[in-house]
Amino acid sequence: MARVEVHHLHPTNWESDPEEEIFPLSTLDYLSGQIWCNYVLFFKLPSATPDSQSELITVLKAGLERTLSQVRQLPGVLTKHPSGSGLCWHKKREDTVEFHVQWLDNTAATGKNKTYPTFADLEKQHFSSKALGDPKTWSVHPFKGGQCPESHWTSRPKAAAYKATFIPGGMVFMMHHHHFSGDIMAWSGQLHQLAENCNAIWAARGTGSAPKFPAWDPACLDFSLTTKPDLPASQQVDGPSAAPERNAAYRPSKRLLFHLPKSKMAKLKKLAAPPDEDGEQGRWISSYDAYTAHIWRVLSKHKAALYEPDLKEALIWGEAVNMRPRFRDPVVPARIQSNFMSVAVSFQSVVPTMSGEEVIFSAPFWKLAWYIRQLTNTVTQDYVNAMLASLAPIRDKTTLFIRGDAFHPMTTLFTDWRDTRPCEADFGFGAPYAFRWLFESVQTGMFVTYPARVNGAPAGADEGTEFSLPVEREVAAALLADPEWSEFFEYRGVENDVDDVEGAEEEEEEEEEEAVAEVVRDRLSKVERDTVVVVRGVAARCRNASVRVRDVCGWLVTVFRRVMTKGL
């Protein structure tokens, strides 16, 4: 059995805390899912010893205790507000947060018949969820991802828990965080506050001086700007009777990891620049607009071959928007907690929608990028204020959440995590080499932009942005072999292949498809690659006729090899 220690952490100076504290949810909090977010940080510790590990844990414990005294809702439980109006985080003086420490860094600890990844193993596989294996190994029970009864408010879920696991060459640090306690940038604020607290403690070791802790702005717990009081009972109305479930049209998928180098990003952004000759001025395109437009276009092309939608109809585009820098009156702290975010969704916007035909081939590329920029620009403080006013009459606001996979499978919903910058968080004992969301399944409705890896970056100075994208299994190989895609995006492997629906393809066939795609991508000419894109699309359709993709593509590669060696 692996060695595990369980610590129940109190906030610093908890003895003098109020007997209980109530932190009401903001109105915006209800638009998020009642799920635990499982954020994982990977630290490289090449020369760790039992003594250095013990010292690290001592510092991490003290840093967590101080952070819990600042981000004060974290020791609480999610429950009904004592007034009967909405939900709240209820913190009692004696409440604690679990911090588990686990050792999987030697055979004696793990057992001869059980193997776990080393830091080098994880780094080689780009720290994917698949490389980690069983999520339970790295998690605190009952914290798990996705929709589950344990994270619903009726189960009185905890806001947070932590687990540090030592592996050969490093440490995996899990930070569990309930989505009703904050969005990704709220977690980022906690992360950087924790890192600075730990850094101060680490720097003060052996000096005889007190740590020089960073400040914490109490305004980070003021959610009044995104909270509307409930209306009198006579003015309240019912919300949706039942939230829509996952769209049954989704085909089995897997989650793939890609990298966009800085040099390719610059090229893509240049291609997305609007022309000046049509008289329009001041149309600025960001890197985000450029890469999301390209992903939208190319991935939609392949998905359309599978789902066969009416391309005259509009495609749904949506994105999460961090509102912290967009609130100007007044300005809010960068580390403000809660779900201080909104969404831009094409069918709810004043910006005219784009048809599938326009998205996939007819509209100039710059128009796609400009369309996304226009959608983002509509999400302002005034927009959020109007939305809050419209939500105020809803009696039960927990009915407002809509899961991302409830829409048509051609839908693209992006979340941009670049500004979290976890690899820049210096804990004193080190900074993370990578950050990942621990995917327990594919989670098809979630397109993720990861922050750049700045420590031990695989591409060196050209290391750019990583993407975690859900891709249907029947189009994955065609996407990988598509020159329009591979011109910019580098494939870094499967992040998760546990599909959200039953009846997913066997892992063996999936790996064989990837192997074939690798051969196609690396060894065949551009003309041949274009042919493979077409043939793979046809081959994928043959599954229902019991024709295996690997047989068709294996034959295709054999023919190409003969042509290349012997000629026609």
TrEMBL record:
<dbReference type="Pfam" id="PF02458">
    <property type="entry name" value="Transferase"/>
</dbReference>
<dbReference type="Pfam" id="PF22664">
    <property type="entry name" value="TRI-like_N"/>
</dbReference>
<feature type="domain" description="Trichothecene 3-O-acetyltransferase-like N-terminal">
    <location>
        <begin position="39"/>
        <end position="198"/>
    </location>
</feature>
<dbReference type="InterPro" id="IPR054710">
    <property type="entry name" value="Tri101-like_N"/>
</dbReference>
<keyword id="KW-0012">Acyltransferase</keyword>
<dbReference type="InterPro" id="IPR023213">
    <property type="entry name" value="CAT-like_dom_sf"/>
</dbReference>
<keyword id="KW-0175">Coiled coil</keyword>
<dbReference type="GO" id="GO:0016747">
    <property type="term" value="F:acyltransferase activity, transferring groups other than amino-acyl groups"/>
</dbReference>
<dbReference type="InterPro" id="IPR050317">
    <property type="entry name" value="Plant_Fungal_Acyltransferase"/>
</dbReference>
<protein>
    <submittedName>
        <fullName>Acyltransferase BOA11</fullName>
    </submittedName>
</protein>
<feature type="coiled-coil region">
    <location>
        <begin position="491"/>
        <end position="518"/>
    </location>
</feature>
<keyword id="KW-0808">Transferase</keyword>
